[in-house]
Amino acid sequence: MHQPNRPSVGRRRALAMAPGLFVALALAVPGLVAQEPAGTIKVEAHSSKWDYPKEITVPEGSRTHIVEKGDTLWDLSGKYLGNPYAWPQIWELNQWIKDPHWIYPGDPLIIDMTRAVATAGSVPESVSGLQPDRRRADPSALRRPELGFAFQDFIQLPFFAPDGAEAHYKNQGAFTLTGNRRDDRQHLAEGETVYMNGGSEQGVKVGDRFLILKTVARKIKHPATKHKLGDVVQQVGVIRVVTPQPKGSVAIIERCLDGVEVGDHLVRFTEPANMPLQLRKDITDPVKVAPNSPVVVFARDAHQHTANGDMVIVDKGTNDGLKVGDVLLAVRTRTFPVGPDEHPKNATETTTHYIGQALVVRTDAQTATCRLLRTTEEILLGDTLTR
Question: What range defines the domain where residue 324 resides?
C-alpha cells in the first residue's frame, strides 16, 4: 500500500481541532486542471488514502479543483472563498475526505463559488494575516496551540437583544425549528434530524447551514444602575439542510454543546474566525483603570461567579470604542483602613488588584460579549474590565 511522505504541518484551528491543514507530500500525479462547471468530469486514478469519486458532476455555481502538492483546505478556502476560516464549507461538499487534515495530490474538490461573497472579508483584522505553520515536524509531537476563542466557544456565545428577543429574530429574518424525527425527545443533540419552517421558496438549499439561537433570559437590568438591558440570546449550535422542500426543510444538527429544542430560532450561519490567545503583561498591582471602563452585567447560564473559559457580557460596546479582539484586564477595587484603631472607617486608602483577563469576542452598540482567558479568582457581576 502506498505510504505518503512525512506531511507538512499546519497550525491547528477550530472545531476543537484545526482546519484541514495537513497535506500528504506524496509525489504529485497528473490530474485535471481546475475548471468551470462542465457536466460530469472523470477523475484520473491516483494514490490517495480516501475513496475519492471516480467521476464528479459539478453543481451550478461551483467549480472543481484538483489538489496539487502543497495545497491545504485553509489555502484553497482563502483562494476561492476569500476567507481561509471558511475551510469547513469546502470540506462539507467533499465528505469522502474523512479527515480534513489530509488531502492528496490528485484528489478532486468541489468548491461552491456562491459562498465567496458571504465569507469574504469576515475575518477580524487581528487574525487576518495568520498563515499555517509549514515547518516539517513529527505529527506525534504536535501540541494544539491555545486559542482565545474557537468554534466551541462561538456556539455557546450569549449576547443582549436590547429591543427583546422576538424583535431580534424578526429583524434577522429567522426561521424556527418546528419538530424533530423523534417526538419523545425534548433536548436534542448532534446528529439528530430536525425540521424547520424555511424551504426552497425562501431560498433554502441543500447544504445550507443555520445558527441555532435560544432565548435564555428576559428583561435583564443593569446590576448597579437598574437600567433595562434587554433579553439575552445565546448561540447553541449549527444545523445543515439535507432535504429542502417548498415551505420547510429537513436538517441535521451538525454541532452543539447545549441542548437544542423545538421552538429555537435559526439564522444564516457564517463561519467564525478562531482567535489566538494573546495575553497582556501589564498586570502589576495597582492596575490603572481607564475612565468609563465596562463592568460585567451578565454571565452565561446566569452564573454569579465565573472563571476561565466562561462568557460574560459587559455594559459597553462599539459606541464606547470596544472592538472584537480587544483584551481587557479584570480589576477589583479594595478599600482598606489606615487610621487609628478606634476610628478605622475615617482613614482609608483605595487600591486596585488584577484578577484576570478577558477577550472581546462580540460587540454590539451598547454591550459586548467577552471570554475569560485567565482568572486569579472568580469574576463577579459588577467587576470592572479595563482597557
Answer: 278-386
